[in-house]
Amino acid sequence: MKKLALLLVLASCSLMMASTNGAMLIGAGKVQVNGTATSGTYTVFPGDQIQTAADSSAMVKSPVAVVSIASESAIQYQGNSVTFEHGNVTVSAPKGADAHFGALVISANPAHPARFQMVRVNGVDRIAALEGSLSITDGIHKTTLDAGYMMTTVAEPPSSPSSPSSSRKAAAAQVGIPGWAIVAITAGALGGVLGGLAVSGAFTSATSPH
């Protein structure tokens, strides 16, 4: 009887989330929704902001995607998409998904599974395509980020215009979307990407053909 009641409650929650674009938040440690502390499992709706503290994490499960939020990170759940704010967030979607990263809009092909990571740590922004290709635009420029490649932008001090390395960096930054470089993820650096803490020198200088 208790099992039946529990199943009925879960079924009603699922129906409610499906009809309202809601999602299930599963938190570990200190997690806030719209500035209010939550614990365990919580239902979130479009427009809700989710933030994790140090040594905490959260997962948002919706009919569209699973969003893994690392410690000291924040997103805004938008139902069919996610707005990234800061930290380290990974999106896994069986049929594609959309995300907003500052002025960029990230779209995964709905015909294929996709998994991508968004990182903003210590002044460094990164978008990594871990599975499936991504279409990324700033509203004017557009590029395709294939699996195994990442886009990165790093605030660096100006160097001599005559420096060969400076010229290569400037050229790489102009690939696809201005201000962003597209580089391949090496096997050794992949662990750093997944942790969101890899240094810029850990990646190859090979640029994507896009």
Tell me the layout of helices and strands:
Elements: H1 2-20, E1 23-28, E2 31-33, E3 36-38, E4 41-44, E5 49-52, E6 57-61, E7 66-69, E8 74-77, E9 81-93, E10 98-101, E11 104-108, E12 114-121, E13 124-131, E14 134-137, E15 142-145, E16 149-154, H2 164-173, E17 181-184, H3 187-195
Parallel strand pairs: 9-10
Antiparallel strand pairs: 1-4, 1-6, 2-3, 2-5, 5-8, 6-7, 7-9, 8-9, 9-12, 10-11, 11-14, 12-13, 13-16, 14-15, 16-17
In the CATH hierarchy, what is the class of the largest domain?
Mainly Beta
User: Quaternary state, please?
Assistant: single chain
- Provide the helix percentage: 10-25%
Largest sheet: 17 strands, mixed
Kindly estimate the percentage of residues that lie in beta strands according to DSSP. Answer: 35-45%
Number of domains: 2
Radius of gyration: 19 Å
What's the total number of strands? Answer: 17
Structural class: alpha+beta
CATH topology of the largest domain: Jelly Rolls
**How do the SSEs run, as a string of H and E?**
HEEEEEEEEEEEEEEEEHEH
Low-confidence stretches: 2-19, 157-164, 166-174, 188-210
* Number of helical stretches of at least 4 residues: 3
Quote the distance from N terminus to C terminus: 59 Å
Globular, elongated, flat, extended or rod-shaped: what is the shape? Answer: globular
User: What value does the average pLDDT take?
Assistant: 78
> What's the architecture of the largest domain, going by CATH?
Sandwich
Would you give an account of this structure?
- With 210 residues, the chain is α+β, with helices and mostly antiparallel strands.
- The protein has two domains: 1-79, no CATH class; 86-210, Jelly Rolls, CATH 2.60.120.
- It is built from three helices and 17 strands.
- Strand 6 and strand 7 (66-69) form a beta hairpin.
- The termini are far apart.
- Mean pLDDT is 78; it is low at 2-19, 157-164, 166-174 and 188-210.
